[in-house]
């Protein structure tokens, strides 16, 4: 059985209207087996067992379903009663399902639905969808749906009136399902996202630079290995393998540092090389080279061990095996016979670094272990210089760049401590920091920085996306979700010192904080007016991300999941500032128009912003910014809008779920009446469940606003799904890594 709340993520097609005879037989067998598992020795299910099996948040629907399934009114459900009810609901006509829905809403069984019954149902729907609304809003929803359905103004809704009202929502009628039967339906086989075949046009579209660089990387290794091995072909196979691997390691151990030169990579993003090199995959290439280094090192070591074993067995050799492997006596190497001891030390250091770089160490509260062991690259470079006679030549250029960048970063970050002038603790354990902006800190929308707060951890630096726009001159905004040891310590430390969480004036302080949040998201901040704290911090950056390409796109689709909105918050605010700059208003007649000229670095014709959140509270992070964006486009037609918003709440049950049909209809009706959504307050209606990506991308492709580029920030699992869809539609896909 699925966990509570998982319904929002189930396939919307849930139950099919028709089944083959063979499928029907298998389904009935499965139902019988499940019933026997849940039912007691008497072969019946009581109300408590039924509630437990359904795993619903609100007992109202479980009780209503139970009463309707219990056809003889005995207080228990038999297998026959359950099979008859489910067969009717799954195989029945839409009219049969509508009658069942009407009976659920008709609580007193009078044959009609009054306003209070409808309100009770909608209240239960809200609980099932994890939506919290004031009682006044609930009354408005109930009245909106009731007045729309009660055509004859009789004060009650008949079955015919409910049917006519539902016919106004064809998507509900088309896919009407009964969620009460989900637990008695065999789990559907998982449909894996079909990936394009390698080297097809769809695959090549998003992997061109990645594939070419990988081919060059493999080709270079083959060439280096072949040249080094051929030079030692007279010394035997083991020496040839060892020298070939050693030459490849000379390149890998020096170039692996280049992939982490963030300032150099940020500079390259502004050049034509960004179109050729896979700069967005530098971390993946760094990890790949790490695996290659470990593999080559093991082969290199085994080859030398075999060679030492053969030498030790030779009568001409004066040294034993352990002396060749561990001591300086044989004189192997270019610096006083240090090749063997340094080789052993290098292998041990490498294996330690490799083990401590695993995700289970980095992401499970042991970041310090990863950080400090990764600093062993410094002694490794020293040992490599002593170990191999040619390594220093390979390291000369990359090493110089690396130490130059590190020196600049250290000097810039420690030049002067900055003040965190304001802290807001937001829903879902999100910490909103407002930091005084340094005078020469120039960044672009979507960039990120490294943050160090000595009072939290003196030596830890963590990357966070800048959520404020570059046009905001005085401060830098960061939104940090508590997902690890450091971020949790950050949230808890401010929570303990935050006066809004204690004291008699708690609500007043909370209201003041909320007002300041709204201002900080849509206007330039003045630190003197918001001096909530004065904690010291250091920043290193800014550094570029794939989102820098957005303004050079023609049609950009921005997809943020949860806190993944942060890079897009900066971009949307920048769009807002640029939009206001291009907008002109006549002082006489107040007529407004847009300047036809565009920024030289902005080619955007259309932006679709899609924000997916689990719960209602998560929308509070940036709802004021989105409201301002909507207000700026209020005078434009739906077709002519530059920015289009799409909001999804995955915990809310979809329109074709019997536990949410009435609620979603009421929300639609009230949104049309009030011109705003009841959940977020935006003009854009919040859609329940997750997006149907196929329909979303079909609509984007049909608009023909130019070449489409999709930018995503969120979970890797969703990134794979989106990437597959983008390859099918030949859209460019860019992912921001957390």
Automatic annotation (TrEMBL):
Compartments, as annotated in UniProt: Membrane
Predominant subcellular localization, coarse grouping: membrane
Keyword Transmembrane in annotation: yes
Residue intervals of the FAD-binding FR-type domain: 413-549
Membrane spanning residue stretches: 212-235, 241-261, 288-312, 332-357, 556-577
SUPFAM superfamilies the UniProt entry points to: EF-hand, Ferredoxin reductase-like, C-terminal NADP-linked domain, Riboflavin synthase domain-like
Membrane topology note: Multi-pass membrane protein
Coiled-coil regions listed: none
Organism superkingdom: Eukaryota
UniProt keyword annotations, A-Z: Calcium, FAD, Flavoprotein, Membrane, Metal-binding, NADP, Oxidoreductase, Transmembrane, Transmembrane helix
InterPro entries referenced in this protein's UniProt entry, alphabetically: EF-hand-dom_pair (IPR011992), EF_Hand_1_Ca_BS (IPR018247), EF_hand_dom (IPR002048), FAD-bd_8 (IPR013112), FAD-bd_FR_type (IPR017927), Fe3_Rdtase_TM_dom (IPR013130), Fe_red_NAD-bd_6 (IPR013121), FNR_nucleotide-bd (IPR039261)
Segments forming domain EF-hand: 57-92, 93-128, 137-172
Keyword Metal-binding: yes
Listed name of the protein: NADPH oxidase 5
């Amino acid at each position: 059985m699925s966990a509570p709340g998982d319904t929002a993520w189930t396939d919307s097609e849930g139950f099919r209207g028709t089944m083959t005879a063979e499928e029907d037989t298998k389904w009935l067998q499965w139902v019988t087996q499940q019933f026997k598992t849940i039912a007691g020795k008497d072969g019946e299910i009581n109300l408590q067992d039924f509630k437990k099996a359904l795993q619903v948040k609100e007992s109202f629907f479980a009780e209503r379903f139970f009463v309707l399934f219990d056809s003889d009114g005995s207080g228990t459900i038999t297998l026959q009663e359950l099979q008859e009810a489910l067969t009717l609901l799954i195989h029945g006509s839409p009219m049969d399902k509508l009658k069942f829905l009407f009976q659920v809403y008709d609580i007193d069984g009078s044959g009609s639905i009054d306003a209070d019954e409808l309100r009770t149902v909608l209240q239960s729907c809200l609980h099932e969808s994890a939506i919290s609304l004031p009682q006044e809003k609930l009354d408005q929803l109930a009245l909106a749906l009731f007045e729309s359905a009660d055509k004859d103004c009789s004060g009650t809704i008949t079955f015919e009136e409910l049917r006519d009202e539902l016919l106004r929502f064809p998507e509900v009628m088309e896919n009407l399902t009964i969620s009460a039967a989900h637990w008695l339906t065999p789990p559907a086989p998982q449909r894996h996202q079909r990936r394009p075949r390698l080297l097809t046009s769809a695959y090549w579209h998003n992997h061109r630079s990645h594939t070419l660089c990988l081919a060059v990387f493999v080709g270079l290794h083959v060439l280096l290995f072949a040249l080094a091995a051929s030079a030692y072909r007279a010394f035997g196979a083991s020496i040839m393998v060892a020298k070939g691997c050693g030459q490849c390691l000379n390149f890998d151990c020096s170039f692996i540092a280049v992939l982490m030169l963030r300032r150099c990579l940020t500079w390259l993003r502004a050049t034509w090389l960004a179109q050729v090199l896979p700069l967005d995959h530098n971390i993946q290439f760094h990890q790949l080279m790490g695996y290659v280094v470990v593999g080559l090192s093991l082969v290199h070591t085994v080859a030398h061990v075999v060679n030492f074993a053969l030498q030790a067995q030779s009568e001409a050799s004066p040294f034993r095996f352990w002396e060749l492997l561990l001591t300086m006596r044989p004189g192997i190497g270019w610096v006083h016979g240090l090749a063997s001891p340094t080789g052993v030390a290098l292998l041990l250091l490498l294996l330690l670094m490799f083990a401590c770089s695993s995700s289970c160490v980095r992401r499970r509260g042991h970041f310090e272990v990863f950080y400090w062991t990764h600093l062993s690259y410094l002694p490794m470079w020293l040992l490599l210089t002593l170990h191999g006679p040619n390594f220093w030549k390979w390291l000369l250029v990359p090493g110089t760049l690396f130490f130059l960048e590190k020196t600049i970063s250290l000097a810039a970050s420690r030049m002067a401590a900055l003040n965190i002038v304001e802290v807001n603790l937001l829903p879902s354990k999100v910490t909103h920091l407002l930091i005084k902006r340094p005078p020469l800190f120039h960044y672009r929308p979507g960039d990120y920085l490294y943050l160090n707060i000595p009072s939290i951890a003196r030596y830890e630096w963590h990357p966070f996306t800048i959520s404020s726009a570059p046009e905001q001159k005085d401060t830098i905004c960061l939104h940090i979700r508590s997902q690890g040891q450091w971020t949790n310590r950050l949230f808890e430390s401010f929570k303990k010192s935050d006066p809004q969480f204690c004291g008699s004036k708690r609500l007043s302080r909370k209201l003041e904080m909320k007002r300041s949040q709204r201002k900080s998201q849509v206007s330039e901040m003045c630190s003197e007016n918001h001096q909530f704290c004065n904690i010291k911090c250091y920043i290193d950056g800014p550094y570029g991300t794939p989102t820098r390409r957005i303004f050079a796109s023609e049609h950009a689709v921005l997809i943020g999941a949860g806190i993944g909105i942060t890079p897009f918050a900066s971009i949307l605010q920048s769009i807002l500032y640029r939009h206001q700059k291009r907008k002109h208003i006549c002082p006489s007649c107040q007529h407004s128009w847009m300047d036809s000229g565009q920024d030289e670095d902005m080619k955007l014709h259309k932006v679709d912003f899609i924000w997916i959140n689990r719960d209602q509270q998560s929308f509070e992070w940036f709802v004021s910014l989105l409201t301002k964006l909507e207000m700026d486009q209020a005078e434009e037609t739906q077709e002519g809008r530059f920015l289009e918003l799409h909001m999804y709440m995955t915990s809310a049950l979809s329109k074709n779920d019997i536990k949410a049909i009435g609620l979603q209809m009421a929300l639609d009706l009230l949104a049309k009446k009030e011109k705003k959504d009841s959940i977020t307050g935006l003009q854009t209606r919040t859609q329940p469940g997750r997006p149907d990506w196929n329909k979303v991308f079909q609509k984007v492709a049909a608009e023909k606003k130019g070449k489409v580029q999709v930018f995503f920030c969120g979970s890797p699992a969703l990134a794979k799904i989106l990437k597959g869809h983008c390859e099918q539609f030949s859209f460019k896909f860019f992912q921001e890594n957390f």
